[in-house]
Every structure is written in structure tokens, then in C-alpha cells.
Predict the 3D structure of the following.
Amino acid sequence: MGDVIGNLGLGFSVALTLKNVALCFLGCLIGTLVGVLPGVGPVATIAILLPITMSLDPIGALIMLAGIYYGAQYGGSTTAILVNIPGEATAVVTALDGHQMARNGEAGLALGLAAIGSFIAGTIATLLIAALAAPMTKLGLLFGPSEYFALMIMGLVFAVVLARGSVLKAVAMIVFGVLLSCVGTDLETGRERLTFGVHHLYDGIEFVVIAMGLFGFAEILKNIADPEKRDVVRARIGRLLPTAAEIRGNLAPILRGTALGSVLGILPGNGAILAPFASYAIEKRVSRQPETFGKGAQAGVAGPESANNAGAQTSFIPLLTLGLPPNAVMALMVGAMLIQGIVPGPQVIDRNPQLFWGLIASMWIGNVMLLIINLPLIGIWVRLLAVPYRLLFPAIVLFCCIGVYSLSNDATAVLMTGLFGLIGYALYRLDFEPAPLALGFVLGKLLEEKLRQALIISNGDPTTFVGSPISASLLGLAVFALALSLLPRVRRGRDTAFKES
Amino acid sequence: MLTRRHVLLGGSVASMLASSAISQGAYPTKPITLIVSYAAGGGTDAIARIFAQRLETVLNGRVVVENRPGAAANLGTEAVAAAAPDGYTLLIGNQGPMVVNPHLFRRLRSDPATTLDPIALIADAGLIVVVGPRLPVATLGDLVREAKNRQLVYGSAGNASASHLAALLLGQVAQFNARHVPYRGAGPALNDLVGGHIDFMVTTIPSAVGLIEGRQLTALAVTTEARFPSLPNVPTAQEAGVAGYTASAWYGLLGPRGLPAAIRDRLESATREALRDSTVLARLSDDGAIPSRKGAREFAEFMSGERERWGQIVRAANITLE
């Protein structure tokens, strides 16, 4: 423990220099602004800013880039709450109850809860990285293909809980999402699947394209078709900050979300994206009033937002301790380290302790910065709702298009987003929920990949999934959860929970 | 052979047109777009950005890197092939889309051998054979012996990636048959190698060097002809007892077919000059790459040789065609 404090002391002595604090602030500010713009993600921003960081020293460059990353994670939830358009893929879940809170006149409260939840999660995750980076790395390494597959199965079972309406429709949406994830080249054989000869589908569909279409464009179509509903949000803005009692009331969801996010964040292949979904599912399960979920439950915002931020932070662990990037942003961080002449890997902690501990300390400073930047901004963001829709809608559409285009500099992606917007509107009219589809899509890719990898490794032997204690217990848990939801008593309870008002 | 004559013929016609139309030194007058067929942050992108920065100084003009990922890196090839051959749209082409994809795709929209003009080879990046805790062997010879004994499992950065093909080639040369587990990129595959879920991998040097230094992985051999400067203790495959096994991922500069000779020569010499810069050399070395001296003609010959070589491996392994 003394070591950790000493090391953190070293870290703060590096991170608290005027220059590094300024870079951290700049990164968080850019990140927040980028995150608020729908579709413009941290990957594009960091890629653009990468050459600029060459003129900085290594630690300064990494501190700024890290700031952009968690700033964007946080900023993404702002648009999710205010206009029901997730600025970031991970904010899809936040939109579910966050936007309902905005409709209930609690936009400021939702933004405040998200900010405070993120801060608490960020603080805990920073301490976790400082104290437990090494054992958590080992935990991540235990997850081979078969363990990962079992985790995905558990995720699918929990996905059903995401639904607000009919369970059958939710299952249909999950399956549709899994099918969409199959579009593109077969990982193992290289054959094209479901591409219908369309060249641009060869590498599959980007999650951002689906999220922006189903949530962003569809939401705008919905509002145009239904002018009465949209005015509800504009009429009432309400309180800006949560009370101490409200923060206390949400402490348990925040802590549960933090724990989930911290563990899922270290998994390879962007496990962090699962964290908010899992947190939402669990909060709904343990809630004494599950019927409030989907109608503006505070725990449905606080939990997933904390999970999201914790996951964003612990996804630095594989990068820092092994040099292995778990997602695209971390891959860019590897690039930034290489530009600075640092080879990422297990030796960084011994060879560049200033960099290692300085970056960790800066994560916490970054969380403080986000709070400083965002709490005063809430008032300004909320006022965005007062902008007339004839101005707001074209602006949102424009930003969505820019964001999607920036993914691969390809106009086809923008057209595809438009198509998903139409699909999303049709689903809305038919009373289908888009959130289970999004989760099905996210899980589907990994599900198939890990299933096939596990089976190749075991030479086709399916007992590999129950052979390891981790995958066996995860599968057991999934079966248990499924059985529980099929029991008549619990099911009656859930049916009431799902009933729309 | 036909391919090469095409390149030379196209070059000489273009040079006649060019010498009358464009005077030396009038290029570049506007920003040059350098297309990378992969998303920002990858190895090819890193090389492209370092190279572009130096090229700006040498050419005294703007060079903008544009990422055009998609369709197994074929979209980048198509974008450059469709651009005007005026030297303002160039491509960083690497082994996969330049010489492997023509063997994998029956319906390739633009074949690099007929739609692009090679300008210069930039760098040759070696690969490295690594093992993790699941296969505790110390030499490449031990790995081969073990692989003949029982079927090993190797990971790769993806189907038909350099890492997959180099492992296939190792199996062909050393005469063993191993099971291939494809991943999405080298990162997740290395994670499973370190975690002891797979036996071995042939991967790019920068992706593994940190893990080797941190003793999470054991390096058995480099696939280059000479030892690698930053890993002096790792033998070549030849030294480790597998003669005739070399493989590399390479990066070159190409333009649309029909590039005026004056512009091509200018870019060829500018590339040569950029590759003399010490920061560029240091960065290439970090990326496990050795700067090349091959100009337009040698690069074209090298490409057709590579195309032949990897074609045989793709066919022998019967990698499915779409």
C-alpha cells in the first residue's frame, strides 16, 4: 500500500506541473466538445491531433490524448440525454432513461447525475489501476475465447431485460442485431456474407452507422412526425443539479456500475462497450421499482454512466501493462507512444515510471477537470433545448453526417446511416425497441468470433465451454438467470414491469 | 513478365507526354493527398504519417494523409486508381492489397498491377516468430519438432494477413501442419498468446517487441535475412535451422497508372532523400522496418516477384476465394 501511495505521489508530481494540467484541461475540453457532436468520435479526433502531439514531450502528449478520450466518453452522454441521440456508441444506454428524465423536466438532474457518477467511477477506477493493475492484467488474460464466449451468452440473456415493451419483440430485435453483425467477410474463410455484392459492406457495418441511424436520424423523423411530443421537453427544464439525498440514493448503482465497468474494461476486443448495457440490466433487476425503468429512472442513468467511465479508464490497463490496445483509441495511444520513442509493453512501468504513474495520476485530474468543465456547462447545454427545432434538427443531421463521414472518409457510410434512420423510424412505428438491436449487434460480432476461435483451438470439441471454471460458471449464471425469468411468479412481476403506461 | 513490360511501356509513353507538358520544379503546386488503405492508428498509417511529414520538407509542399479503409484495403487502391495521374493523389501500398488480394478476389475492381504505377519501395518490415506460456520452447527447431509431434494452434491478425501467410509459409518450409485461429488484428491474438490460449504466432516486430522485452513472450526467430538491429539476440530463421524461410510485410509509394515520368522521377528521388533523414530512419526502425533503396523499376520487379510467391502460398493453402 505504501508503494502505491509513493508511486501515486510520483505520478502527481509529474501530472500536476502547470503545463501538464493545462494539457489535461485542453484534452478534456476538446474531448467534451467532440463527444457532444453526434458521431464525431475520439478516434477521428485523436488521429487528427496525433501529429500535433509530436512536438510535446511523451507524458504531456499522452495526458492530452487520454483527456480527449474520457472527455468524449462523457460528452457523448450529453446529447443522449438532451435530444435522445447518443454522441458516442457507449451512450446508447444512457439515452434510454436519460432522455426520459429530460422529458420529465429533469434534464439538468440527469446531466448532473451522469457527471457525478462518472467522477466517482473515475476516482475509484484510478485507484484500482494504481493498486491492482498487475492482478487485473492477469484476470484479463484468463479470458480466452471460450471464457469470452460464455460471457457473451450471459450478455445475451441479460439483453432481454433491456426491453421496455414485449419480450418477444425484444428477442426479435436481438436476433436482428446479431444477424446485422454477420454482414461482411467471414473471419475464418474470408467469404462474403449478406453483402449482396455491395462492395462497401465487405468489412461489415460500423456500429456508429447503426447507432446514428437507429437513434439519431430516427429520433429526428419521430419528432417531425409527432410535433406534440417534442414540445414536452422544451416546456420544462427544471433543476440543474442533484441534491445530496439524490446522490446518496444513487450511490449503490454508481458503485455497482463502477465494479462492472472496471472488470469489463480490461477485456480485449472492447469489452468496455458491454459495461453500460450490463449495468442497466442489473439495476433494473435489483430495483424495487423496475417499472420506472424506461420512464426516467435515475439509477438507469447513474449506473450505466459510471460503468462507462470506469470501463473507459480500466481499458488503459492492458495498454499500460502489456502494450496491447483493447480498442481503437488505445491503438492510437500505442501510435502516440511509438512516435515518442516509447515501446509499449510490460517494461514501461520499470523504465518510464514517470510516464506510467504520471498518466494514472492525470486520469484522476482529468476526472476533476471534467466535473469543472461540465457542471457549469449543464446550464448552457440545457438551454440548447430552447433552440427552435427548425434550426436544431438540420444542425443535428449535419453533425451526424460529418461524424459518420469522418469514420472512413466514405459517403456510402452516410447513405447507410440514412437507411438505418428509415429502419429505425419503421421500428418505432411498429413498437420495436432499438436498444436490444444495438446490443445484439455488439454481442453478435464477438459471439461468433469467440465461438469459432474456441472451437478451432479445442479442435471442434464443445466441452471446452464447460472445461474451464470461468466459462462454466458464466454459462451456469446465464442458465440461472434464464430460468429465473421463466418462473411464473417472477415472470408475472416482469410482465407488469414491462407494461407500458 | 507481361505485367512488367506494361509498367515499363506505360512509363515511357507517359514520360514523353510529361516532358513537354510539365517543366521540372513546377510540382507540387497544390497539396498532395497520400491515401492509406487502413484506419488511423495502425502500422501502415504510422509509417505513412512519418514519411509524409518528411516528404513535405523534401518537396517543399503540403502532403495530406487520408485514411480510406474498407473492403480489405481494396477501397484505397480503387480511390487512387480512379484519380488523375497528376502526382497529387498517391498511395501507400503494402503487401496485402498490392500482391495478395489479387489472388483472393476474383472480382477485384482494380488490379494494382494494371491500374497503379509503382514509384518507390519505402521500407521492408520483418516479422518475428513468438511463443507464449502454452508452448514453452526455446528455439525455432524445438517448435518445429513439437509441431511435427502434435498439431499446434497459431493465431494471426486475420485471414490472409501477412501474419497468417507467413505462418503458413513456415509450415510449408518446415513441413508441418498447424491449426489457424484468425483474430481481428494482432492485438487480441497476442493477448491470447500471452494468456496461454494459443501456441505461437508470426507477427510484426513492433506488435511484439514490448512483450518480448517484458518476458511475456519468447522470440524464436526473425523472418528477415539478417538479424534485426533492435533485437540482436534473436536469430534469423536460417540460423535457427529453418533454411529458406524469409517473409516480410513491406510498404511502397504508388500512383495512378500513367504518371508523367518527370513527376515519378521527382517522387522517386524525394522518397530516396526522405529515407536518409535520421528521424525517419529511427521511426522506421521502431516499427521493425528497414528503409529500402528500390526505385520505380526495382519496386515493380519486386512486386511481381512477391505476387508470384504469395500466390503460390495462397493456392497451396487453398484459402477460399470469394
In short: The radius of gyration of chain B is 20 Å.
